[in-house]
Design brief:
Strand order of the largest sheet of chain A: 14-15-22-21-17-18-19-20-16
Shape of chain B: globular
Distance between the termini of chain A: 54 Å
CATH superfamily of the largest domain in chain A: ATP-grasp fold, A domain
Helix content of chain B: 25-40%
Number of domains of chain B: 1
Radius of gyration of chain B: 15 Å
Helix content of chain A: 40-55%
CATH class of chain B: Mainly Beta
CATH superfamily of chain B: Electron Transport, Fmn-binding Protein, Chain A
Distance between the termini of chain B: 25 Å
Largest interface: A-B, 30 and 26 residues
Strand content of chain A: 15-25%
Oligomer: heterodimer
Strand content of chain B: 35-45%
CATH class of the largest domain in chain A: Alpha Beta
Number of strands of chain B: 7
Shape of chain A: globular
CATH architecture of the largest domain in chain A: 2-Layer Sandwich
Number of helices of chain A: 24
Structural class of chain B: alpha+beta
Largest sheet of chain A: 9 strands, mixed
Number of helices of chain B: 5
Strand order of the largest sheet of chain B: 1-2-3-6-5-4
Number of strands of chain A: 22
Largest sheet of chain B: 6 strands, antiparallel, barrel
CATH topology of chain B: Pnp Oxidase, Chain A
Structural class of chain A: alpha+beta
Radius of gyration of chain A: 30 Å
CATH architecture of chain B: Roll
Chain lengths: ~725, ~150
């Protein structure tokens, strides 16, 4: 069993032990191409690591909690996070560690290394995995190198890699990973060359940046671009760009810094150098007998090949289009920062203003025709913001995952979600609403007369302090009867709100559920102490970004709800006019217009069938224990309250367990009463999990058919540590 | 496939593919586990096994007919933790005789032909378990129950 091979030791039958990337490098080394000093870690080294202490089965247990096709991308991310964490916590077994340490020290003598993935199943699938697995540049010190080898291994199990393997039908159980260890060449100019333009077979394409290739490959630094004639080997065109940054080696890793003034004024390559690079690509093409995509770097005037692979995008297939989407699951810090500015400075204020403007408009004075136009206008406005939500707000949630990975890499905590403790207790709109409800409940509790008044359903004194506060609450958050924040017209009165306030008033202990900030400050301090200088600043920025991303994950729905509430108000006005005219027996063409608008925008169609086949003559099935994802640590037992319709929430009783299809922030006002949360949708970043963490409640997400298998009144136990829900059977 | 059909299929597959199961009986409250070679009926309502009448398990089930049986597809490998399916069967045991015994013995020996001498010995009993409940575990901790009205 070979754990390490040098390029010249590689034989043809090693190809599936080192992967196509490494195999190509070995062939190039043999042919005299100028490649940096290199060693290959075979898949045997990976297998020795994962087989130690049953790591392979731990991975498969994670991946088989439920059917892969039933997992949402957020659940797959959670799975990938847990697997990554297992890899980080697991030490390389001693014989392998000693062997690797000795070989690496002997070969590279303390030099900084690039550590790249080389997955053999790229060959098996005939598909490119470019960008799906991790690579690291400028890693120093044996301990850090061994650490980064584990990170490359674990990238085999990243969410993007898992999804892509599933997509192209690879058996994830058999996945293995080889690694390329390469001396880091600190090139001052780098790039890629396509020996054949994917869109024009008569051309060669070169892209080049100053500094390391990382900037170009990660899309952080825009490259200059040359198009050359393949036959004549002449430059056809050169697209010059604004050169602002370059990626250079930092103390550990790489960093993007401003490009020196003198370099920014001239292109990274001369025409002669571009032709030299073109020649290099042709030599690679000759060796591999296929058009090549070659990564290169230049140190002083020496040209190095970093890797070469066949061009897989000559005829883009559907699969490759999807790979781009999987890759988009990973957002860079720069990308997220730009998104944050857009969201916080433009989109949120615009949403708030839109909702306010719509609320201020008096639709009762509009003619029927004008009202029909207004309903259409509001529908378009709402649709615009729904689209914005998917395109801008959802991707911004990646800020949390980016921070989670950063935190886990630095701190190696026992709990892979410990980082969430630094994000909770942020100022979220849903928490402000719940606090106001708690204040109102406290007023009811302290005023016996008021409590009896609410119990009996009598009319409240109009100008009492309580009425005033209730009105303020409704103005801001609606009366909770609607599935959107700010809605007030879904029930005939404020009874849903008062029922909940009474329940909260009678059960003051429930208010103590709200979790106090845990040791968040200590955790934060310990986290920051890990970094110095520019790294410390980076850590602070990332935490700030993650907090904003986490807060917005909840708040965006509240803002969106307020806009939808205004659309519903207009629809309600239209419905009322149509009904009253039908009662009077009057008919106008304007009214037809209103009718057609209401008909076209009818809500509530296409709802899920809420039944499940569970019985046949003589047989009956019962769920006993359901497995989901652990999304909020803790253990609690109570009666289930299954929410199938928004108005079911008004019956929520103290210490019940909320069971629903998908929680959204417009529903989470019952959380102060709840003893636990169960949700069909899975993931750590769904609203149910976020709010449960805020209140310190056990939470299990990703239970398929939760609202169908569990019934209101069932005695259930929520194990938020293991992600398990147990349903008690009274007679057994 | 609905939950119901899915569960019945997995239980049926297990009854067909597994040859051995663990039977639980008790004596004065002391649990007792033993290995049995079984056969299950297609309709999932009964399971049968053969045992000498001199055994502890036979004495136990004669004193208290309530029994539990564990059937599972594990292969004694790491992969069992995510791949194996396990079923706990709850029911009542009773010795069969006469025509029913002759019918079932045929079914039993089709599955376990090597046990012919054992199963037809006059000292052995063919025991029928009338099933009340199957408790099926898969994906390590996912548990569903199938109850049968007999």
């Amino acid at each position: 069993m070979n754990w390490i091979l040098s390029p010249l030791e590689v034989k043809p039958d090693h190809r599936n032990r080192i992967g196509p990337k490494a195999y190509a490098l070995s062939l190039m080394a043999r042919e005299g191409f100028n490649i940096p000093d290199t060693l290959f870690l075979t898949v045997d080294a990976y297998n020795a690591f994962v087989n130690a202490a049953g790591l392979r089965e731990r991975i498969l247990l994670e991946l088989n909690r439920k059917k892969f096709k039933d997992m949402r991308w957020e659940e797959i991310w959670d799975c990938a996070t847990r697997i990554r964490h297992i890899f980080l916590k697991k030490q390389i077994p001693d014989p392998l560690k000693s062997y690797l340490t000795e070989k690496i020290q002997l070969r590279f003598k303390g030099k900084a290394l690039a550590i790249r993935s080389s997955a053999p199943d790229e060959d098996a699938s005939g598909s490119s995995f470019a960008g799906l697995h991790e690579s690291f540049v400028n890693v120093r010190g044996t301990s850090s190198i061994l650490d980064h080898i584990r990170l490359v291994w674990t990238s085999l199990w990243s969410d993007a890699a898992l999804l892509y393997r599933q997509e192209i039908g690879l058996d994830v159980d058999k996945s293995e990973m080889a690694v390329v260890l390469q001396e880091t060449v600190t090139g001052n100019r780098s790039g890629v060359v396509f020996s054949q333009n994917p869109n024009d077979e008569t051309q060669v394409i070169i892209e080049s940046v100053y500094g390391l290739n990382q900037g170009l490959v990660d899309g952080m630094v825009e490259p200059d671009r040359w198009v050359l004639d393949r036959d004549k080997k002449t430059v056809l065109s050169h697209k010059s760009v604004q050169r602002k940054h370059w990626m250079i080696p930092s103390e550990t890793g790489v960093e993007m810094t401003p490009l020196p003034e003198d370099l920014s004024r001239r292109p990274p390559l001369s025409s002669e150098e571009a032709i030299d690079i073109c020649e290099l690509a042709f030599q690679a093409e000759t060796l591999f007998k296929a058009p090549q995509d070659v990564e290169w770097t230049m140190k002083k005037d020496a040209l190095y090949v970093l890797q070469s692979r066949p061009i897989t995008t000559l005829s883009p297939s559907e699969t490759e289009d999807k790979r781009a989407w999987y890759l988009s699951l990973h957002r860079s810090v720069e990308n997220l920062k730009a998104l944050r500015t857009t969201i916080e400075e433009t989109l949120i204020p615009e949403m708030a203003k839109t909702a306010k403007d719509l609320a201020e408009q008096d639709i009762t004075v509009l003619s029927d025709r004008e009202l029909a136009g207004e309903v259409r206008r509001r529908w378009k406005i709402n649709q615009h913001w729904v689209n914005t939500y998917w395109e801008e707000f959802i991707p911004y949630a990646h800020g949390v995952r980016l921070f989670g990975q950063y935190y886990n890499d630095a701190m190696r905590p026992d709990d892979p979600y410990a980082f969430m403790n630094l994000l909770t207790q942020t100022k979220m709109a849903s928490l402000e609403r719940n606090q106001l409800m708690e204040d109102l409940a406290a007023m009811v509790r302290e005023d016996r007369q008021l409590l009896e008044c609410l119990k009996s359903g009598a009319v409240l004194e109009r100008d009492s302090k309580f009425s005033e506060k209730v009105n303020q609450f409704i103005e801001k958050f609606g009366d909770l009867s609607c599935a959107v924040t700010g809605g007030t017209d879904c029930a005939t009165d404020t009874r849903p709100l008062f029922k909940l306030l009474l329940e909260m008033a009678i059960n003051p202990s429930s208010l103590a559920f709200r979790k106090q900030p845990r040791n968040a400050l200590t955790l934060q301090q310990r986290f920051f102490e890990r970094f110095q200088g520019s790294k410390r600043k980076e850590a602070e920025e990332l935490l700030d970004l993650a907090r904003s991303s986490y807060r917005l994950r909840d708040d965006d729905n509240i803002y969106l709800g307020k806009i939808e509430a205004q659309l519903l108000n207009a629809v309600k006005e239209a419905k009322s006019r149509v009904e009253s005219s039908e009662r009077r027996g009057t008919h106008t063409s304007e009214l037809d217009d209103l009718k057609s608008v209401i008909h076209n925008l009818d809500y509530g169609n296409g709802k899920r069938e809420l039944t499940i086949s569970s019985n046949e003559y003589g047989f009956k099935i019962n769920p006993r224990q359901l497995v989901g994802q652990p999304a909020g640590p803790g253990l609690s037992r109570g009666k289930a309250r299954v929410i199938r319709h928004h108005l079911d929430l008004q019956d929520f009783k103290n210490a019940e367990i909320l069971v629903c299809d998908s929680v959204d922030p417009n529903m989470t006002f019952v959380i102060p009463l709840a003893a636990g949360v169960i949700e069909r949708r899975g993931g750590m970043l769904i609203h149910g999990a976020i709010i449960a963490r805020e209140y310190g409640l056990p939470c299990v997400t990703g239970i398929p058919d939760a609202t169908l298998l569990i019934h209101t009144g069932d005695d259930i136990t929520v194990d938020g540590f293991l992600g398990i829900v147990t349903i008690s059977q009274k007679d057994r | 496939m609905t939950h119901y059909e899915d569960i019945k299929k997995q239980i049926r597959d297990l009854l067909i593919n597994q040859k051995l199961a663990v039977l639980s009986t008790h004596h004065s409250g002391q649990p007792y586990a033993s290995l049995i070679a079984f056969v299950g009926k297609e309709d999932l309502k009964e399971i049968y096994f053969v045992t000498p009448r001199t055994t502890r398990k036979f004495a136990n089930l004669s004193a208290d007919s309530r029994v539990a049986i564990l059937i599972n597809s594990s292969l004694n490998m790491d992969s069992d933790f995510h791949e194996a399916v396990s079923v706990t069967v709850l029911g009542n045991a009773k010795e069969t005789n006469g025509a029913e015994k002759d019918d079932i013995l045929g079914l039993y020996l089709t599955k376990h032909p090597y046990l012919e001498a054992f199963a037809t010995s006059p000292t052995c009993a063919l025991v029928k378990i009338t099933i009340k409940t199957y408790v099926m575990v898969r994906n390590f901790q996912h548990v569903m129950e199938l109850h049968i009205d007999q």
